[in-house]
Amino acid sequence: MRPTSALALCLTLALPTLACGQAADPRAGLLDAMKAELDRNAKALKVDDYDAPYFLSYRVTERDQAGVEARFGAVVSDGRDRDRVAAVDVRVGDYAFDSSPEPDDIIFMEPATFRPPHEAPVDDDAAALRTTLWLLTDAAYKEALSTYLRKKARKVTEVQKDEQVDSFSKETPVTDVEPPLSPTVERPKWAALARRLSARFKAMPELLEGAVRVSADHERVFLVTSEGTRLIREIVIYSIAFDAVTRAPDGLLLDQGRTLYGRSFAELPDEAALADMIDQSMADLRALRAAPVADPFNGPAILEPEATGVFFHETVGHRLEGERQNDENEGQTFKGQIGQAILPDFITVRDDPSRKTYDGVSLNGHYRHDDQGVPAEDTVLVEGGVLRSFLTSRTPIEGAPRSNGHGRAQGVRRPMARMGNLIIEGEAPVSRAKLKAMLIEEVKAQGKPYGLIIRDITGGSTNTSNYGYQAFKGTPRMVYRVDAETGEETLVRGVEMVGTPLTAVSKIMATSTEVGVFNGYCGAESGYVPVSAVAPAALFREIELQRTQREKEKPPVLPPPWAAKASAPGSTTE
Hints:
PmbA/TldD fold
């Protein structure tokens, strides 16, 4: 807190200082209401002779989304969606052993059991908010007691691990109230832009979809804990997305599109640049419609920067999330390997949510404090190929008793260790031309007729559990065969990248000086959270591609209305 002058002080309970005469920040009242209800429960909540809670936390997430979408030149949706939800964490026991649920815990509820709603009032009504928290706290406490007693009973009959880790980490309480944000939403302007841009898709009659969406997503998180943490976190992410879909003559669905993000609308490309991107997407789709279907492939390939970022996110990042090391249902790919080489010795991987931008591009995965109130830390995960640490929340794992600020969640879900800004660095990187020359050299050494360049990947998925195979899959959109003799690049289609993580990452031969940023959202057990990946292009000694599932459906029989001359009685249609 700081004074506005030497003579007068305007203090607002650790909120940003306001000039005298200004209206009080309404967020202060909500945070105070949460703290008052938490204090009331912390002092008096107890059932009979059972344990009282040793820890409580309240997290209220407010989401305000506004967006306009147009398809082929006409607006199809224009709206705003605003809500608040409350998440309550009540823990019984102590930091060493508490009521936090274990992976195999299944809670059976009677059909008539009342479950208090998580929806919180969007009105700034302190009493209504406290009522929501009161009911949620009561239910969470009773559930915590039941879980705690079941866990104590299991200790009597089950073999315990050699190394016992605490249930919950002790962290230093923080107070951090970020300045309030108010996104600028210009619906008429956005609607006009979406109409103009989406109308460009009429230039390609073969399209089944040609849509543009302009949106702003404002998220505000309030957090108070019985340890003393008080924080408000604010984030606004603007986005412009376009999507085009067509069907090849053989029935294969083809799509092109991009989603561009910015922490301010001014960071997004201007209309001329967006128009060029849309025109290029249609040109790519025309080329893909005429391109041959690729055969299954196993050999050398280059992944461009965004594709490399998605690859590391799926194959390495998810397997370094802390909770997965505790869960016996997980594959635990890297458990117990701290200090051991898991990647080529020229690769370093870190996750740094505290980083706001990279090369002038705002990073989706930036935040100051995670959803458990722990400061975000720049965490070196792999250094020179050697595993150094894991992503951790306040759920300790062997060798990592405290959080490094990666406990993240969407809405009311329980936070777990998640990626923020995953950064991949290669030692002694080479130029883009040199990387292609190395590709051709490796193709010849393996006696292959061609190698591959994978320009981009729409997304990926991975299985980290021990049920089934440890595998990942990525869906590339633009794949080029590179002739071993001439270096000529030929576009192909109809393949997806597959493999097993440990095998795939061990095949990296070199990285480029060129670095790219991938911004997006990642979905996992704790919901969807904004993430980024910063990565170079990478040359792989071996990448495996398989054929994608092919639809047999024919394209539409008639062209779209705007592509056919309207017929009148007695006239002919060209």
